[in-house]
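Annex B.
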Amino acid sequence: MPNIGGRPATIARDDILRAGRELGMRRLSVKAVAARLGVTATALYRHVESRWGLERLVGESILAELRLRDDPGHDLERHLLSFALQMRGFMLEHPGLVTYLQLLFPRGDGGQRLLNTEVDALVRRGYEPGAAIVLSGAVASLTIAMTASEENSMAAEEADGAGLDRERQAVRDRLAGDDRLAGPSAALPQVPRPEYVRLLLTASIRGLIGSCPPGRPIAGMVADLAATGKGL
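TetR family transcriptional regulator: predicted structure tokens.
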């Protein structure tokens, strides 16, 4: 809402949230929201303490719309894969959200609700709460990291698709000229991105379940992992 007659515009927290949602997480900043509302940054700081507070306000509002589906017929592996794919799909639908989550998860009520929902689902499948927190957090972290890589690739394609194609071709040419790598790299199947992501998530989830099976106390799992690390 712009200034009228030279008087400072009056804004509310809901106005900031609305403007932030319209901008989206990728373009979100105090300066951008202030410009959209026709006010100074100082006016925003009366309602949000910093850019961190602005990110949290908008990011948690978006996360509040994600409702995780839990199919009781899914075994543990299928459930965790579904959890990961639901998170991935939601993040890709909201550009910039993955960067917000990558810094710290959970950061507010929306993320905490999601974590609680997933912990409850794992407790129903035989985990004690501490192990459920570790396992769900690990799957969420992997999913966030992989989705961030996907979003970066898509942003590069949007910014300069032709340039990225040239870079990809340069990589293929470099591999083709390597006596050791040419044959194996040429024989690799071309897996579409969604299937490749699903493959990596499935392999990671199987490894996590192997390290942290249902019913195992978290203390034992952490002790075994620490012992393994010392031997490396």
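The longest helix spans residues 129-176. The CA atoms of residues 51 and 197 lie 32 Å apart. Further annotation is deferred to the next reporting cycle.
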